[in-house]
Amino acid sequence: MIRVGIHNHHWSTFGGGEVSAGSLAEELSKTHSVTLLGPHKPDFEAFRKYLNIDLSRCQFEEVSGDIEASKSSENFDWFINHSFSSRTVNRAQFGIFVVMFPGDPLRARAKIKAMICRPLWRFLRFTGFKFERLENSLRLHAHDLSWVDSYDKFFAISNYTKHWVSKLWDCDCEILYPPPSRSVIGKEKEKVILSVGRFFQPEGRHSKKHLDLIKAFTSLDSAFIRDGWKLVLAGGCAEEDQAYLEEVKKAAEGFSIDVVANISGDELEDLYSCASIYWHATGLGESPLNNPSRFEHFGISVVEAMAAGVVPIVFEKGGPSEIVQPGINGLHWGSLDDLVDKTNHLISDGSWADTLRKKSIERSTDFDKRRYRNQLRDFFDEI
After folding, report:
1. Of 50, 119, 141, 317, whose Cβ has the fewest other Cβ atoms within 10 Å?
2. Percentages helix, strand, coil for the chain, rounded to the nearest 5?
3. What is the C-alpha R_g of the chain?
4. Torsion sign over Cα 237, 241, 246, 249
5. Would you say 231 and 217 are in contact if contact means Cβ atoms under 8 Å apart?
């Protein structure tokens, strides 16, 4: 049986990256010997409960970072790097990198560091110096891309990611859209606007913009609020981000807004099934040239919402903009005022909303698990 190692440094995060990595592990473990690599063992029961992903057939090996992951890769027939920001050198017979996002363009300070560190790193390699942690640190600051050549295949999770991989790493990717972890059947819709995304401190990360969404909701036509419309913000929250969660809850006080964290998969499915409108705001106010990583890289939650018949209104840049076809199966927006105007219009025109809802369900099948399984099978059959 083919031995496969799947490296992810963030198994405990339960974000979109872990849905993608977990889905890959689940599928491959049906026919291959799969070992999950990372600093902490994934909670298999939590994966099942919160993400509807079965990892019970997988093994686990602890690796603390890129150096250890590189050493461990020698023990597998296939090594799959599915870790954001990793620069692990593959030493397996066949190496695959599933790219969430390649990072941001170098700023002036980083370019200066690279100019200093690059010759030092090359000198250490030439002399055969074996202090690996120093060498690895210099390699990272040198922004050396020689590790790219150790992989045989690159997959990008979206065209948005593919574009930046080509620009920053100078290599081509195939698109492997990650599948939704659940397929929800919509029921009778209620006056609910839903947004799903992890609660975490936003500085320097692709923030879900919860505070901006609260501001937008409070700016909706007051007649709709009086008529019973409410906003629900749902997502996971790690212990270290509780302060941010409390900030969001405080901002929501006094309004028809529910803030719910770390709910079960069943509870999340109930929200998808009854919600009418889905909001997604990642990327608002960020620079698409200097900080492209702060935009949504794909947007699994958008697909899950569409499958349940929730009409998506998503920010106009990043992964969700290629999932949602504006005016066909959802809407794009570029400012909070634009989001408010389009939401008001959608609420007031039930016939238009129903048309978009039907088309959003159809569109979601382009990203479902069946398509994902077929693409994986076709690829791995060729190896």
Report:
1. 119
2. 45, 15, 40
3. 22
4. negative
5. yes
Residues 305/282, Cβ–Cβ less than 8 Å: no
Alpha-carbon distance of 383 to 288, in angstroms, equals 36
The residue written with tokens 């870790």 in the block is 83
Residue 326 pairs with which residues in a beta bridge? 330
- Classify residue 179 by its DSSP letter: P
With contact defined as beta carbons under 8 Å apart, do 131 and 205 qualify? no
Render pLDDT for 311-364 as a digit per residue (tens, 0 to 9): 999 999 999 999 999 999 999 999 999 999 999 999 999 999 999 999 999 999
CA 177 from centre of chain: 11
Average pLDDT, the chain: 91
Domains and CATH numbers, the chain: 3-106+143-179+369-382 (3.40.50.2000), 192-367 (3.40.50.2000)
Q: How far apart are CA 15 and CA 21, in angstroms?
A: 10
Nearest residue to 179 via CA among 366, 13, 378, 382: 366
Q: How far apart are CA 212 and CA 280, in angstroms?
A: 11
